[in-house]
Amino acid sequence: MSNLVNWVEIPAGNFKRAVQFYKTILGVDIHEADMFGTKMGFFPRSEKGVSGAIVVGEGYTPSYEGTTVYLNGGDDLQTILDRISKTEGKIIVPKTQISPEMGFFAMFLDSEGNKMALHSMN
Fold first, then answer.
1. Is residue 104 in a domain?
2. Which residues span the domain enclosing 16?
3. Are strands 7-11 and 51-56 parallel, antiparallel or unpaired?
């Protein structure tokens, strides 16, 4: 088992708004599809990498409480935080060093009200 986590689904109330939010802050393309009556916006992934999707459908409710997903902050998560500050998102924990060996983290609310986090080594 190379990764404990295999897939993440981020609930959205407004699909288009959520897709635009994540495209903007992450600088990635998101492929949109309808799967079994559920709207999904797929994040890019490498062959063996963990990925996920933005999802709108029955049983998917955005939330501040519950599981927190840490997204890859790239070389320096501050780049993504700077983009968040120009969107409908809100930074709730600024870039904070965990330790020199473990890097940095930050937390934010996405456009839908989900509590999310970022991690990078710089």
1. yes
2. 7-120
3. parallel
Q: Is pLDDT of 1 > 80?
A: no
Domain membership flag for residue 1? no
User: What CA–CA distance (Å, rounded) separates 87 from 18?
Assistant: 11
pLDDT in tens, 11-43: 999 999 999 999 999 999 999 999 998 999 999
Q: Domain count of the chain? A: 1
CATH (domain of 36): 3.10.180.10
pLDDT tens column, 70-107: 999 999 999 999 999 999 999 999 999 999 999 999 99
H-only helix segments in the chain: 15-26, 78-84
Half-sphere exposure for 43 (CA within 13 Å, toward CB)? 23
Cite the beta strand spans of the chain per DSSP E.
7-11, 31-35, 38-42, 51-56, 69-72, 90-99, 103-109, 115-120
Structure tokens at 23: 């495209």
Q: Please indicate, yes or no, if residue 2 is contained in any of the structural domains.
A: no
